[in-house]
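Good morning C.,

I know you're traveling, so I'll keep this short. The sequence:
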Amino acid sequence: MRICDIRPIPERILAIIRQADEQGFPQPDGHVRFYSYLTTARRELIKVTVAVKHIRKKWFCKQVAVHGLYSSKCYVKDMEYCGYFGMGFRVGWCDEGLQPHRKWYECGWCWAADKYYDPSCPTLNLQFVGTLPEFRYSAFEYYRGADILGYLRLYTAYPQIEYLMKLGLDNIAQNVTVLKRCGKDKNFCKWLIKNRAEIAGNYHYIPVIMEAYKTGRPLEDLQRYHEVKKSLQHTENYAAVKELFKDRNLEDLCKYLTAQKANASSYADYVESLRLSGTRYVTRTQSSPPRIPALARYPHRRIPHRNDNRKRKQAQRILRAF
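The tokens, ready to paste straight into the viewer:
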């Protein structure tokens, strides 16, 4: 794809863009909106991004970026990213006669790396992909994201993504680890079919899915275990819990909370409730709420006494929940 291959917006596409913009913005709006449409150039699928804006109650539309399916660079015109307070992309309108002077980034068509200048926006003629023989069975109609070119690149490298999309597993279909496993392990594909309702209906870490397949353990238990472990390792709000288990491995606590079907936040409430209720010592048995065997003998640790009756009553209510 070259700059000379960029053609003006067809009238039919321009009408589709205007109709979509009028549905979202029935009243004139001065903010910039972005839309994209698909076309071909030199037998390559390209995505053209356009900017839309109302100025003095008049509707304006212009091309601002062009990305190719197999190109390593994109072309951009009169658009620049502004990270100041998360403003996003800004567009110049000097060529349309809407501003007296050119801004520094208005210099015609320029090129950049393909990963840049790709604002998240709806693709209005997604059905155009079905007209290309190589992507007719790519399950593109099931894709709900904003990067259709990235999805088609994945399909080119891993055709089994069509299998996952049609199963309704679009939440894991774009993960390369899962795609590679599907390509070489038929038993894994059968396991996904068997558990697709649970995988599609809930969020799971990819390591959880792989471990559940290898070990046969329930997805729900493994997900809870990994969430507890991750929160204890990376969250600073559980300093009291970490101090209580400083002489022991946190793996014991993760396994305990998983069996209890609790989370790190509820256990932190339990530890804080022991403090607020006036408990002067936290023993090993108290470090594990009821109905669970004590982990290992823990040396006594002194805790300052608190005399706030209101907080003490609140702590008693929390303790009864355990």
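Safe travels,
E.
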